[in-house]
Structures are given as C-alpha cells and as structure tokens.
C-alpha cells in the first residue's frame, strides 16, 4: 500500500529544510541562512501517531537555479501538486506577505489538494502576535503558527496534516502482480517502452491511476503472469532549469523504486551514458532491486556485433558496481528486442525470489573455502560454520562465523561470485550478512550491507 505524501512548499529562506528536519525527527536536509542552500536529501519517511507518510522537501529545486524567483516557485508548486496528497505551504512571519505568497496560494487553491498554511518563526509560546492574522488573507482556513527551529506548534500542525491523509487503498490486483519500474533520464524513451510493452498483441488487464499525482500504472498480462508497469515519465511541462529536471527525475525514481521489484534502467544509445544515468542506477542498486539495463534507440546505431560488444564493455565499466544486471539492446520505436526483454524480466524476477536449499548452499560454501581458504590476520583465520538463507527479494544469506573482524571485503566478494557461479542470480543483488560467534555486542556481530 502506498504511503501518503506530504510536500513542503514556500519561498526560499522561510525554513523549509528546518521544518523538514523537525518533522522527520532527524537532521536530513542541510540548512543555512542562504536561500537555495544545497540539499543532501529531498525525501524521507516519517510517522505521526501511527500514520506513516513520505515527506518531500521541494526546496531541492532551488539548488543552483538561475531562473527568476517566481518561475522557481511555480516549479515547486507544480511538483507539490503533482506528487503530494497534502501540501504544507510555509510562510515567514518575519518577512511578511509578498506577491509571490499570493501567487503560490492561488495556484495551490486551484489544485484542489488539501493545503495547510503554516506561518513559521513564531518563536514565542502563547498567543500568536497580531501580524500572524494577516496570513489569513491567503485564503486558507487552516492557518497554523509554528516555530520549526524551536519545535513549537508542530503537534497542532501534524494533527491537522494527518486528518487530510487519504484512506489507504489496496487494489486486489496488486496482490499477485510483478511491479516493474521504468527508470531513466527525461526523453530517454520510457513512455515509448511502456507503450510497446502494452502492445496490442498483449492483453491489458486494467489501467488504474496510482494516485492523482502519479503517471498511470498499467497492468499487462504476459505468459500467464500479471505485470504492473510503473512509468516515471517527467513533468508534462518542460522545465527551463536543468537542476529542476534532475531533481524531479530523482524524486520520481525513488518513489517508483519503493513500489517496484524490478528496475528497467534505460540508456539513450545515441546520447551515450550520462552522469544522471549513473545516479539512477545507483539508486536502484542501493534499494536492492532487481535490475536490467536497457540500451534504447539501438536501431539508430551501428548494427555490427563488434560495435555492440564494445558498447556493452563500456557500459559494464561505467556500471561496475552492478555487474549482475543484464544488458538488453532494443528499440522501443520499432519493437526490436522487446521479446528478449520480456524473457529477461521473467528470469530476473525468478532469480529475485529464488530460494536455495540450506544443504546445497553449505555444500557450495564448503567447496569455495576448499578452493580458496579464508585469509588469516595475526595468526587467526576466519571460520565459516554455517550459512542459511533468511529471505528473498532480494536473496539474503546469513553466515555464522567466528569473528567478523577477520572478514575482508575481498573474501566476501569471492564468496558472492562463487554463489553466482553455482546459482542463477542474474539481475539481482545478493545481500550477505555475517554473525560472529558469541558476540558481546550484538550490534557489532552483524554486518548488513546498505
């Protein structure tokens, strides 16, 4: 089930990042007096009295902007309207009202989304000062005074916010479908690929809007399995600011990954691999999702086998941290390679949910140790007593060992490679966890790769 989304919107330097940190309960966004200060996080999960939700700091659009303040605010509002269930419109009592505040208010009212007008920097407890009441001119019945830095008024704000969260909806069709996210830079061909996968030769089960802020989630049946395609197409209106495009792309990628099991990472064959492609792939890898690289627009490239081999080698070098992900060359326009993509999606999904018998797993580990004994440190040798599979999606294996201090990352990589050699884990990350024997500090006896 999808968690409701709260977006914070407001002029620069009204305290969006401070409020973001206060609502999240931890310091996630960099704050400072300079408008548009660089952010290191734009999205996080939070909760309030049993209500789990996702918090978005739309202030990330401000980073590096060269556009006018008014255009900048329009982009923030567009993101909030498109993505959020509830919008927190943050104003600043010390700065007073401005034409931009009234412009934002008008656009938010037209959206029909629930809006909480929040007046920040009311730093004295008790009744708000007289100037607070002028913010009712923005036209929102719910206008709440707060101090994000002093954490005053946040209880009233959060109580008001959660009252507007929609009731959780779970579609029955989601119980047995395979969610596939189509990821990539703007204009890489994501929508074209989604349309080709939903071609006339296949039976479309249904089209259910995830929410008003999402692009359409399309359900398609292929080889007696139902797939949910999550298209992360960009904003309908082209942005003038490259930073805004990257911001929205990252936001959409994270949201889509949360709802998916398989990530289709699209690369534009003509334009080549860009830095943003690496960031998108990194998000899928960090989220431990099964992944497939798709090199689109291959019909426009040299069709020789040698050129394809060289292109894949360059891609593998760039995405060395995802050597497990297969590469598919296709054309979403002509349909070349689509059948191979469907087959690969099936195989990768099976690998993502593959369970290994414990006895067979330990046989493979024992053989690996015989072929390459664990290294020694100061006369002590790593001993692996036992391995067991503790989960799937992604496959997760727990190793019981004598001392995690003796574990070297190179030996961990070696064991992962041996497991991949013996079991079909194409397209899926492997999570290896380690538990030391009789550790006094339990937190130090388990290693969990992030």
Tell me what you see in this structure.
It contains eleven helices and 19 strands. The chain is α/β, with parallel strands linked by helices and 450 residues long. The model is unreliable at 28-41, 200-215, 234-242 and 439-450 (pLDDT under 50). The radius of gyration is 25 Å and the shape is globular. Helix 6 packs parallel to helix 7 (275-286). The chain has three domains: 5-163, 3-Layer(aba) Sandwich (Rossmann fold); 172-352, Rossmann fold (3-Layer(aba) Sandwich), CATH 3.40.50.300; 358-447, GMP Synthetase, Chain A, domain 3.
Q: Which superfamily, in CATH terms, is the homologous superfamily of the largest domain?
A: P-loop containing nucleotide triphosphate hydrolases
Unreliable stretches, pLDDT < 50, 5 or more residues? 28-41, 200-215, 234-242, 439-450
Task: State the end-to-end CA separation.
Answer: 24 Å
Under the CATH scheme, the architecture of the largest domain is 3-Layer(aba) Sandwich
Number of domains: 3
Beta-strand content estimate: 15-25%
Structural class: alpha/beta
What is the strand and helix layout of this fold?
Layout: E1 5-10, H1 16-24, E2 43-48, E3 51-57, H2 69-83, E4 86-92, H3 99-111, E5 115-120, E6 143-145, H4 154-163, E7 178-183, H5 190-197, E8 203-209, E9 216-222, E10 225-231, H6 242-258, E11 262-268, H7 275-286, E12 290-296, H8 305-318, E13 327-329, H9 338-352, H10 358-371, E14 376-377, E15 380-381, E16 384-391, E17 396-401, H11 409-422, E18 431-436, E19 446-447
């Amino acid at each position: 089930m999808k968690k409701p989304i709260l977006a914070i919107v407001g002029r620069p330097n009204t305290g969006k990042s401070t409020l973001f940190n206060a609502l999240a309960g931890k310091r996630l966004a960099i704050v400072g007096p300079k408008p548009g200060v660089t952010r290191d996080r734009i999205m996080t999960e939070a909760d309030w009295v049993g209500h789990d939700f996702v918090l978005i700091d739309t202030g990330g659009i401000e980073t590096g902007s060269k556009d006018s303040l008014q255009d900048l605010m329009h982009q923030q509002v567009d993101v909030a309207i498109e993505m959020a269930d509830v919008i927190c419109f943050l104003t600043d009592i010390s700065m007073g009202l401005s034409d931009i505040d009234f412009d934002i208010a008008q656009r938010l009212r037209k959206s029909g989304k629930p809006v909480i007008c929040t007046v920040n920097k009311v730093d004295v407890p008790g009744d708000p000062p007289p100037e607070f009441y002028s913010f009712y001119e923005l036209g929102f019945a719910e206008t709440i005074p707060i101090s994000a830095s002093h954490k005053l008024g946040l209880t009233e704000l959060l109580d008001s916010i959660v009252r507007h969260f929609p009731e959780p909806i779970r579609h029955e069709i989601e119980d047995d479908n395979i969610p596939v996210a189509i990821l990539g830079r703007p204009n890489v061909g994501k929508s074209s690929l989604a349309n080709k996968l939903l071609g006339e030769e296949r039976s479309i089960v249904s089209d259910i809007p995830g929410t008003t802020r999402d692009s359409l989630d399309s359900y398609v049946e292929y080889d007696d399995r139902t797939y949910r395609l999550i298209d992360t197409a960009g904003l309908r209106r082209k942005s003038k600011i490259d930073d805004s495009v990257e911001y929205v792309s990252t936001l959409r990628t994270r949201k889509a990954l949360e709802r998916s099991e398989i990530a289709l990472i699209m690369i534009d064959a003509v334009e080549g691999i860009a830095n943003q492609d690496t960031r998108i792939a990194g998000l899928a890898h960090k989220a431990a999702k099964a992944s497939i690289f798709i090199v689109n627009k291959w019909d426009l490239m040299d069709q020789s086998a040698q050129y394809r081999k060289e292109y894949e080698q360059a891609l593998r070098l760039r995405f060395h941290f995802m050597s497990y992900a297969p590469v598919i060359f296709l054309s979403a326009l002509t349909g070349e390679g689509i059948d191979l993509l469907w087959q690969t999606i099936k195989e990768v999904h099976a690998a993502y949910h593959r369970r290994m018998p414990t006895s067979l797993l330990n046989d493979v580990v024992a053989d690996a140790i015989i072929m390459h004994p664990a290294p020694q440190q100061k006369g002590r040798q790593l001993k692996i007593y036992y391995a067991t599979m503790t989960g799937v999606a992604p496959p997760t294996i727990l190793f019981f060992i004598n001392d995690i201090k003796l574990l070297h990352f190179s030996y961990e990589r070696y064991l992962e490679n041996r497991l991949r050699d013996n079991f079909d884990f194409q397209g899926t990350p492997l999570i290896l966890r380690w538990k030391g024997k009789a550790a006094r500090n339990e937190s130090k006896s388990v290693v969990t790769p992030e």
